[in-house]
Amino acid sequence: MRQFVLIGHDIPTEPDFSLDDLAGGAGRLDALCRSITAAFVTSHGIRETVRVHLVAQDELTVTFDGSDLRRLNPDERSTAALVRTALEHRDEAIGALPAEPSPGIEVYRRGFEGTLEELAADGPVVHLHEDGEAVVDVGPDALEDGVFVLSDHHDFTAEEADLLEAVADRRLRLGPELLHADQAITVAHHFLDTDGYERF
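The line above is the sequence of tRNA (pseudouridine(54)-N(1))-methyltransferase; the predicted structure tokens follow.
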């Protein structure tokens, strides 16, 4: 299982946002929707062994599970509609119990730290960062069942960076150029799909 944690610093925690203004009024939810799409969508299919955890303002986490996910299309608007539907059910999440607004989607009342704590036992926590160790020097075996952590258009806050310093097993960079989160997800998938670029 590959997992991606996406931090949305500015995205809404309430469903009262317009699907026609994802870049402005919804706190760059457009970019995060591209990342969700990149994590799951293949040509004519969905990656079933992937989960994405979208952390909204360190307050809520919306989890997408590819094994059950339905109605995810390769466009930002339909993905944002799934996020909005999830937020419409936020009040049904009580304590550690999630709301389940639709197949493959759960909403939890926990922020970044709680999400990382929950996922830390699933596999190595990998902080993707331009100052990290080169992924080709680590190899794919060390990243099996990895939990990859990315930020939105903002840098990680000092508090988030300190948490990652304490929790992350590795800090990795995927290449010589700075990448958007959706691009980084695509590169990470390709690296692991090809056993570190060894198998095609």
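Note on the example: Residues 76-88 form the longest helix (13 residues). The chain has one domain: 2-194.
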